[in-house]
Each structure stands twice: as structure tokens, then as C-alpha cells.
Known about the structure:
It is a single chain. The termini are far apart. A hairpin with a 2-residue loop joins strand 2 (about 10-15) and strand 3 (about 20-25). Helix content is about 45%, strand content about 15%. The chain is an alpha+beta fold.
Amino acid sequence: MSLYKRGRTWWYKFEFVGQTFRESTKHTNKKLAEEAEMQRRVQLRDGLHQIKRTSGHVQLFNQAADRWLEAKCLRRPRSARIVTANVGHLRKHFGKMLLFDITDHDVVQYQRQRMASPKTVNEEVKNLKSILKKNNIVIAIEMLSQPKYSVGLALSPEQEDVLLAACRQSTAPALYPVVLLALATGMRHNEIRMLTWEQIDWKRNEIKVGESKTDAGEGRKIPMQTR
Length: 227
């Protein structure tokens, strides 16, 4: 946003197709002023492209994400924590953008900058597409290619020791406990990622799995082992 104050009133100043627009929002409330600036930007853009809208409501990504999350978590409470985490990452990049301003180029930038596995990024982008589609916005998005995994092989005790030793040398502080937990319990990636302290029973020395890929996996109890 490009807001500034003159007395008690908020004004905006921005460039559009080489022309400077400096106008009063006629508001003393900053939130109303931000909405006025957004409306003006959309009005200019729609006029340039001869777009006629049936609704005058303009939304930031954050606003649309809030509405989408509320409905998503209500319909599918089991996936609430995962989609909330996904949208949290999307907010950092798209949060203050107008929905109509988000382009395929913005998504490509997000895919390049997001430091996570292709599978994780693809899940987040799928949520982004769903939020946009909910607001009648469709853009062409190509998902990242994901490696095809072969059937896994069990590690020998010696291989586990080598793996854990390498994890201890990593600059990522969470890597060692995560790998150790995976080796000791066989828990899935998301089961470990969404684990909370409340799921650990120190008296019984066991972990109660939370949200899982299958109904049978959810709520199962796994004994904690020591190495």
C-alpha cells in the first residue's frame, strides 16, 4: 500500500501505466483507506482491460484465505492443521496481494523461493488454486515434478548409525530428532511433522499418533524406544 496522511485524512499515491495517481481516500480510518485504494487500483485496471465485474468486493489474499480456511476446516476437521500450516506459508508471499493481482509468474516465484520438498510445495500450491477458484479466479499453474520413489529397503543397524551421525552434523537442529523418531517408530512424515507434546505420554513411554493418512493409523499408540 502507498498510504500517507494529510492532517487526519489518509491519501494514496501510486503509478499506473506511467501516470501518477495522488488522491484522497476521504477516510481517517486506515483500514477503510486501504480498501479505498484497492478499489481505485482495481477500477483503473478493469477500465484498462475493459473488464466488467458483477461484484464490487475486492479482497486481499489474507481475507480470502481466512474464509476458505474456515469452510475447509469445518468440512474436513481432520486436515485442519495441515491446510492451516500450508496457508501460513502462502500468506508470507501472497498475504497482502489482491486476489486479482496474483499471476502464474507470482506462483513460479513462490515455487522457486519456497525451501521445501516438491511434494510439500505442490500441496501448498493446490491450496492456493483452491482459494483462487473459490473466488472465480483461474490461472495456469504447473506443479513441480516429484521424484518417483522405489520400494524402500530396511537399513541395517550400521547404516542407521551412519545416518544419525550425519544428522548430528547438520546445521538443521530438528533433523536429528526427526530422523531418530522416524527410525524408532516408523511414523509417517506428516504424523511426525504435526506431532505435539500432548501426544507424548512420558509415564507410559509411548506416543499417540494424531491425524494420519488412514483411519486405522490415527490414534494408534507406539512405544518409545531408546538407542
